């Protein structure tokens, strides 16, 4: 499926006929600008991690215990875990293992480079398995490939971080006959910080539609127990996250059957969480790990309860999309943006990729909460940008259910910059309605870093 296949006019027609379209953002992360399905009329989903972990205990011959992650389990007819000789396999390439006796042994592999982690794991496992190893301990930078350990054909494969890897390596170097034992995995919840944006989750900005902030939302997509044919397996990807969002859409639609696709999307985006249950900002797995921004997770991590009662919604008449996009049926149906910037759409986000002069955009919100309500604005301006909202307070009652406000966005510097992020929040005692903002200050028509 090409990058544009989900942006066909058929998706637009579906939305214009009251059908919500939810699409996976792709698994090309953590590189930026690799998103799929970025048309404004779809909900584009990123993948996040949940608080379930699979700790696997490694016991060394000196009784030191270390914890890794694995999906290793023993069958009923298998004997208990026992110690095996532990050997250092370097990076476990064919060259590194040449001349090393690994048959019946547990092999430590340390991967210091970063590339296709799934392929690295598959290559390493193939090399140690063909040599008859009884177990694999693979040290590498934090990634989201735990599900790959299910393919280890009955032998324990444990993922550890680089720090623990060097502890094991130090033990091997200090012993004449190093040994190790790997216990079967246990499943634990609530002991790791979550959510986090997954390493593989594709990141924005959108190449095709940079005036549309994408992705829209993040949802659980790592180590999800999913049905495959007649079995259940753990699987990861934005294709695992997307059904979570589709399910939330269905639940909200059941609560509010009259709501439009745009209203449903707005409720999900504006109620999303940007912090975990401990109040810690959500992180994004990357190189290095960082605090997540809207190009990682859009509005944030999905919050179903909040989406069911968002307070305010940013609604769009689906015919409005035709004013901003020209869709033609050709060999591939491509929708091209018109001369009118798409950040003027009434989206629950603002993205301005070329801010050179003061710019004004309008947004309209509809009160779907208590009839009598007052909302005040809270602005977090992106670095180098001044944002002002008029009016700063919105008052709703039985006769005034809809308000339009203006957002003035002014660059403070005259530089060739990069994206910076902020937010606009409408709040009262019952609701917090937040939209993300992404702005890039420019002075020329190029964006690459220049020496």
From TrEMBL:
So where does this one cross the membrane?
none
Please state which protein family the record places this protein in. Answer: Belongs to the peptidase S8 family.
Matches recorded under Pfam families: fn3_6, Peptidase_S8
Q: Which organism is this protein's natural source?
A: Panicum miliaceum (Proso millet)
What are this entry's molecular-function GO terms? Answer: serine-type endopeptidase activity
Subtilisin-like protease fibronectin type-III domain location is 345-439
Give yes or no: UniProt keyword Ligase: no
Q: Residue ranges of the Peptidase S8/S53 domain?
A: 8-279
Q: Which UniProt keywords are present, listed alphabetically?
A: Hydrolase, Protease, Serine protease, Signal
PANTHER family annotated for this entry? PROPROTEIN CONVERTASE SUBTILISIN/KEXIN
Please report the name of this protein according to its UniProt entry: Subtilisin-like protease SBT3.5
| Entries under InterPro entries matching the protein | Peptidase_S8/S53_dom, Peptidase_S8/S53_dom_sf, Peptidase_S8_Ser-AS, SBT, Subtilisin-like_FN3
């Amino acid at each position: 499926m090409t990058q544009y296949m989900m942006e066909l006019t058929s998706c637009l027609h579906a939305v214009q006929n009251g059908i919500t379209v939810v699409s996976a953002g792709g698994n090309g992360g953590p590189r930026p600008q690799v998103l799929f399905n970025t048309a404004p009329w779809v909900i584009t989903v990123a993948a996040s991690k949940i608080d379930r972990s699979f700790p696997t205990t490694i016991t060394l011959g000196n009784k030191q215990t270390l914890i890794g992650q694995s999906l290793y389990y023993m069958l009923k007819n298998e004997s208990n875990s026992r110690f095996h000789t532990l050997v250092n396999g370097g990076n476990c390439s064919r060259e590194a293992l040449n001349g090393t006796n690994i048959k019946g042994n547990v092999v430590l592999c340390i991967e210091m480079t970063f590339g296709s982690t799934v392929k690295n794991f598959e290559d390493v496992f193939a090399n140690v398995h063909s040599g008859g190893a009884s177990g694999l301990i693979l040290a590498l930078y934090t990634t989201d490939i735990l599900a790959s350990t299910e393919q280890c054909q009955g032998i324990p494969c444990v993922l550890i971080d680089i720090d623990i890897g060097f502890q094991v390596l130090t033990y091997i170097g200090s012993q004449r006959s190093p040994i190790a034992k790997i216990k079967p995995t246990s499943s634990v919840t609530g002991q790791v910080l979550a959510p986090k944006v997954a390493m593989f989750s594709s990141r924005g900005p959108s190449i095709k539609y940079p005036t549309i902030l994408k992705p829209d939302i993040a949802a659980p997509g790592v180590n999800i127990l999913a049905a495959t044919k007649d079995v259940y397996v753990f699987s990861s990807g934005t294709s695992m996250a997307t059904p979570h969002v589709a399910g939330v859409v269905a639940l909200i639609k059941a609560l509010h059957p009259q709501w439009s696709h745009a209203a449903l999307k707005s409720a999900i985006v504006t109620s999303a969480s940007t912090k975990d249950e401990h109040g810690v900002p959500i992180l994004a797995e990357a190189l290095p790990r960082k605090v997540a921004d809207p190009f990682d997770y859009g509005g944030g991590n999905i919050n179903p309860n909040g989406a069911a009662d968002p307070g305010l919604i940013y609604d769009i008449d689906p015919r409005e999309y035709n004013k901003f996009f020209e869709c033609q049926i050709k060999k591939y149906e491509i929708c091209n943006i018109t001369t009118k910037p798409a950040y003027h759409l009434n989206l629950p986000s603002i993205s301005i990729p070329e801010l050179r002069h003061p710019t004004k955009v309008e947004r309209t919100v509809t009160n779907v909460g208590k009839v009598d309500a007052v909302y005040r604005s809270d602005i977090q301006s992106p670095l180098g940008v001044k944002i002002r909202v008029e009016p700063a307070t919105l008052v709703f009652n039985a006769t005034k259910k809809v308000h339009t406000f203006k957002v003035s966005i002014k660059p403070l510097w005259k530089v060739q910059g990069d994206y910076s992020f902020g937010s606009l929040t409408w709040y009262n005692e019952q609701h917090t309605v937040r939209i993300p903002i992404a702005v890039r200050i420019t002075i020329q028509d190029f964006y690459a870093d220049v020496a």
